[in-house]
Design a protein that fits this description.
The complex is a heterodimer.
Chain A (H helix, E strand, L loop, with lengths): L1 E5 L2 E5 L7 H8 L18 E4 L2 E4 L12 E3 L8 H12 L9 H14 L5 H7 L9 H11 L10
Helix pairs in contact in A: 2-3, 2-5
Chain B lengths: L8 H6 L13 E3 L6 E3 L5 H8 L11 H4 E3 L5 E5 L8 H13 L6 E5 L21 H28 L6 E4 L2 E4 L4 E4 H8 L29 H5 L15 E7 L6 E5 L2 H5 L4 E7 L2 E6 L2 H10 L2 E4 L15 H10 L5 E6 L2 H7 L2 E8 L12 E6 L5 E4 L5 H12 L6 E4 L19 H11 L3 E4 L2 H7 L6 E9 L5 E10 L2 H6 L8 H4 L11 E8 L14 H18 L4 H8 L4 H13 L8 E2 L5 E9 L5 E11 L2 E12 L6 H20 L5 E2 L2 E2 L17 E6 L17 H13 L13
The chains are: A alpha+beta, B alpha+beta.
């Protein structure tokens, strides 16, 4: 048994230590907000925060995060920065299919918790998750909005 | 605003998600909220049951109870005939129905409807979500549906208030008796309205000038759920007693399992329930997906060559590089799709001519949600299935065959799509549902099968490859006189069917044929070459490559004649006011035509290219601005003007154009599904890159609402993008781009 702290709650799971955190969340704990996209840390759909830092859970052995604070999309709005990120996502109408957006919101929340006023270069360096719907400009606008920077909207 | 909510657990008890229940029209419905009891218009269950048998004919889109339920809190449940996969169609449906029902679209909760004849609203005779057809083919039907529901509510209001219907009107969500100042909400009236027959005479539709919601940038209904992890996709579905499954596919389609060398070993792996030999795959069933996956990957399989005729058996010799050469040189019957004037005579009279061969590549859909299928056989002999799909009734027919059950014993559940782009149609060997059915039968328990990204890229049918041999002629003034295009390819429609219809597959040549330019002499033809791979529809289908070919060659022809590409296009559009307006609109949007090369403020040398397309009933024009450093193309800006005739939601159109620009750039810059020795070179995003955020340009969208017949929106933003970029790159380098992806330029 491995004891985890997920969204502030202690959870005990019966999983081998090398099981990726992603599958423990999805199958053992029924927390399906965190998504499987590639399994090799390329796409970022599985992003969670480990002690406040965005982490790709599909390649994170569960034993490596025992004792850490794990935050998933299910609790993102409990975090004041996360709540602002979600509001910005709604305001900028970011999601299309939505499958990558849990990970995008987690990546943005992690960035803005660590750096409230990121530069464009900071945003580019931090927001590397893939989105097949191509919502990249809306994501950027939403992150800049939370950071207090203006962005010209996409038009129409 | 009411957010979109996934199927409520309370609802799941009565809706056809669990064991069959006998729900009458007056049955209780869970609401979108906290499981409140709802007296609604009724359930589509009866409709579906009728559909399954050879029941009375139903006119699609006319039976209000099949589509709408109104809760006491005035929220409205709409059964959508269309799948939501990011294109915004559920919001559009709420706008269209809400407009005529007189109910705020923000109060709608939209779900994907079950199978059945009520929802065959595409041209009134079929149900697919594709071809950018949803809104444009069902617009009138869905408006009439909303108007019929409003008429029922007014009738119910007349009974309740004791006044004639002629004295009643509506305000959003309520029936109003102006004279007395009394009103009653739709939610209060819904139980009474239920018993009323739909009026025989169709209600009058609103004058578009009175539209309150259609044409406005209505916020999407699903955005909050999708920003907080609450949206449920097929891959997230869970039922009691469910086992998980993973597969290892044969590296080449057609190979069968000879022997699993380490079967005893993988059976003994932790968590493994059972190991199964399937058609062309080894499957592992386990209590957890991770265990299933690990064991499926660990299987050491001796694959056997096919013995009889099989669907598109992949030869061990196949490589995409050699196939490109074959397509460029193969001789065969030229089947002519479009012709005008006298091409031979034009070439004889031409001032100068140019020939060139262009290439496109195979592409994966690469939707971010990997395919899955959950199959559950129930004690009463019925089957429930959950899987991503763009055409529930078409899948129902196939599931019935595979499961050997009559369709009326099968319920197809169609959750939100985590992207689709054409991925979730019925494709031979391209969908996981047959494997899930087989496994659920064998283990006598519900089974959810997920194809890992690697297994998905191996069985995802591909956007076809083509080589087009062009010849062009210019006249004495330097303007195009003739274009001949011979495409060696297989169209996706004939490829999926695996047979030729006797006519040219329009999806093979669209974008080469059907161009809007007035060119005096042309000849557009196909040499049919069967693809060794499986093929598919991919966002914008034939247009995804054919407009690249045509528009890039058109620039080549302009250069040959010493003419500017903008002047050439205006010339070829003379007399076409709609497209002249559109082309000028994109030029204006970009600040005036400036082909370059020019030095930008940051010191980089840049150039711009333009292109046009006429896909799916919509017209588009795009301009792209690029620079090149170390062989890498940077696309800085894309301007696109789009004329869909008329508009339901301009914000969604702008978002869809952004999305289409991203996918168009992705295939232009980086994507290619390559084969060597009959096997895929790359089976995940490490070796098959897609567009990353740092390569996304600024996108500027101008919607031109000409008032012409309504066109599509999901796909049309794509086809003009690859040629606009290619034309800009060609201009900047002084060397033509004739194949995609650009990759690293030499």
């Amino acid at each position: 048994m491995i004891e985890l702290t997920i969204n502030g709650q202690k959870r005990r799971v019966d999983a081998e230590g090398d099981t990726p955190l992603l599958w423990v969340l999805r199958d053992d704990l029924g927390m399906t907000g965190t998504k499987y996209g590639c399994g090799i840390a390329q796409c970022g759909a599985c992003s969670v925060m480990i002690d406040g830092t965005v982490t790709r859970s599909c390649v994170t052995p569960v034993e490596s995060v025992a004792g850490a604070q794990i935050t998933t999309i299910e609790a993102v709005e409990a975090d004041p920065v996360g709540a602002r990120v979600v509001e910005a996502w709604v305001k900028h109408q970011v999601p299309q299919c939505g499958y990558c957006q849990s990970g995008q919101v987690m990546a943005a929340t992690s960035l803005l918790k660590q750096n409230a006023k990121p530069s464009d270069a900071d945003v580019e360096a931090a927001m590397t998750n893939l989105c097949r719907c191509g919502t990249y400009n809306a994501i950027k606008a939403a992150v800049r909005d939370v950071a207090g920077l203006a962005t010209q909207e996409q038009g129409a | 605003m009411t957010e979109w909510t996934p199927l409520d657990p309370a609802l799941a008890k009565v809706l056809p998600t669990g064991d069959p229940v006998n729900v009458s029209r007056r049955g209780f419905l869970g609401s979108a909220g906290a499981g409140a009891l709802v007296l609604g218009f009724g359930l589509p269950v009866a409709a579906r049951a009728q559909a399954a048998g050879s029941a009375p004919a139903v006119t699609p889109g006319t039976r209000v109870p099949a589509f709408l339920a109104i809760n006491p809190d005035n929220t409205i449940r709409l059964q959508s005939p269309f799948a939501e996969g990011g294109q915004g169609v559920w919001t559009a449906m709420a706008q269209i129905v809400g407009e005529e029902l007189d109910a705020d679209p923000a109060t709608f909760v939209v779900e994907n409807a079950p199978t059945g004849p009520d929802y065959q609203v595409v041209y009134g005779r079929m149900r697919i979500t594709g071809g950018s057809m949803s809104v444009r083919t069902s617009y009138d039907t869905m408006r009439r549906l909303g108007a019929s529901a409003r008429a029922l509510l007014i009738q119910a209001g007349a009974q309740r208030l004791g006044v004639p219907t002629s004295q009643l009107s509506t305000q959003p969500g309520r029936v109003v008796h102006q004279a007395s100042g009394r009103s009653v909400t739709y939610g209060e009236l819904a139980p009474t309205a239920l018993d009323l027959p739909v009026p025989a005479t169709p209600p009058t539709l609103k004058d578009p000038k009175d539209f309150r919601w259609i044409g406005k940038p209505q916020a999407r209904l699903d955005v909050r759920a999708k920003s907080t992890g609450k949206a449920q996709f097929a891959i997230d579905t869970k039922v009691d007693g469910m086992l998980h499954a993973a597969v290892q596919h044969a590296p080449r389609l057609g190979l069968t399992v000879g022997k699993i060398r380490n079967e005893a070993e993988i059976k003994a792996m932790k968590g493994v329930h059972s190991v199964h030999v399937l058609d062309g795959a080894v499957a592992v069933v386990a209590q957890r997906f991770w265990h299933a996956r690990r064991a499926a990957e660990a299987a050491q399989v001796d694959w056997a060559e096919p013995t009889g005729a099989t669907y598109r058996a992949m030869p061990a010799s196949f490589s995409t590089q050699a196939h490109a050469t074959h397509l460029a040189t193969v001789q065969g019957t030229e089947e002519v799709a479009e012709t005008a004037g006298d091409v031979a005579k034009a070439f004889a009279a031409a001032k100068s001519t140019v020939s060139a061969t262009y290439h496109s590549q195979y592409l994966n859909h690469a939707q971010l949600e990997p395919p899955s299928a959950l199959a559950r056989f129930n004690a009463d002999g019925t089957l429930d299935m959950w899987f991503p799909n763009q055409a529930p009734d078409m899948f129902l027919a196939e599931v019935a065959k595979v499961a050997a059950l009559p369709p009326e014993k099968i319920r197809i559940h169609s959750p939100l799509l985590g992207g689709f782009f054409g991925r979730h149609f019925l494709y031979p060997h391209g969908n996981p549902y047959p494997q899930a059915i087989e496994l659920a039968k064998r283990v006598n328990a519900p089974v959810k099968l997920i194809w890992t990204r690697e297994e998905e890229f191996l069985r995802d049918p591909l956007r076809p490859m083509a080589a087009v041999r062009f010849r062009g002629a210019v006249d004495a003034s330097g303007m195009p006189l003739a274009i001949e295009a011979i495409s060696a390819t297989e169209g996706p429609t004939e490829g999926i069917a695996d047979k030729r219809s006797g006519q040219i597959d329009p999806t093979a040549l669209e974008g080469l044929a059907g161009k809007s330019y007035t060119l005096p002499n042309k000849r557009i033809a196909q040499i049919f070459v069967k693809s060794p791979t499986t093929v598919a529809y991919w966002r914008s289908v034939g247009n995804s490559m054919n407009d690249f070919f045509y528009e890039a060659f058109l620039d080549e022809l302009a250069d040959k004649g010493g003419q500017d590409p903008y002047a050439v296009r205006l010339h070829l559009l003379s007399g076409n006011a709609r497209l002249t307006t559109l082309l000028k609109a994109v030029v204006d949007l970009s600040g005036g035509w400036k082909r370059g090369p020019f030095k930008a403020a940051d010191g980089t040398m840049r150039a711009r290219g333009m292109a046009m397309a006429s896909p799916f009933g919509t017209q588009t024009a795009a301009i792209a601005e690029v620079s090149i450093a170390d062989g890498q193309v940077t696309v800085h800006e894309v301007w696109q003007a789009i004329d869909p005739g008329s508009v339901v939601n301009p914000a969604i159109i702008a978002a869809q154009v952004n999305s289409a620009v991203a996918l168009g750039l992705s295939q232009t810059l980086v994507e290619e599904a390559a084969y060597k020795n009959g096997e895929r070179v790359a089976r995940n995003f490490d070796g098959y890159p897609i567009l990353t955020p740092d390569r996304m340009p600024r996108v500027h969208v101008k919607i031109v609402e000409s008032g012409e017949k309504m066109g599509g929106i999901g796909e049309p933003g794509l086809p003009a993008v690859p040629p606009a970029v290619a034309n800009a790159v060609s201009r900047l380098r002084g060397q033509r781009v004739r194949s995609l992806p650009l990759g690293t330029l030499a």
